[in-house]
Amino acid sequence: MKKTIYISFIITLIFLSIGLLQSCKTSLEVKEKTGAVLWSENCSRCHYSPDPEDYNDAQWEVIAMHMRVRTNLTAEESEKITRFLQESN
Ligand code: HEC
Fold it and tell me: Does the beta carbon of 66 sit less than 6 angstroms from any atom of ligand 1?
């Protein structure tokens, strides 16, 4: 009986570590995302995706600060999106 409990504990541990490895892989994928991808995924949740040409570089700088808080982005993600918008206007 004890052995069965021990074995199921080990199996649970194995599944947990596989899950953990999977989540590490996902966060790596997030790191590799370009500004354009992050922009299309995050900036149309609440309103239509803004056109990069709608604002100039300085305006995007300010908008990015406001929308970073709303979107809950990391500094890196926000910078990538801002750079993409500034390069595309
Ligand atoms: C959680 C919802 C939410 C998300 C996500 C969001 N926005 Fe917004 N956005 C708003 C709201 C609400 C307004 C209008 C009020 C305001 O300007 O604060 C707005 C306004 C704007 C405006 C118009 C600003 C102006 O002065 O006319 C732009 C441009 C914009 N968002 C860009 C973005 C970009 C780029 C992203 C992605 C990084 C983004 N938004 C993500 C809620 C959001």
Answer: yes
Q: pLDDT (tens digit, 0 to 9) for every residue of the chain, 89 residues total?
A: 788 888 888 888 888 887 777 766 666 666 789 999 999 999 999 999 889 999 999 999 999 999 999 999 999 999 999 999 999 99
* Rounded Cα distance, 11 and 17, in Å: 10
CA-wise closest residue to 67 among 36, 39, 37, 35: 39
Cα of 31 from ligand 1 centre, angstroms: 23
Cα separation, 73 vs 64, whole angstroms: 10
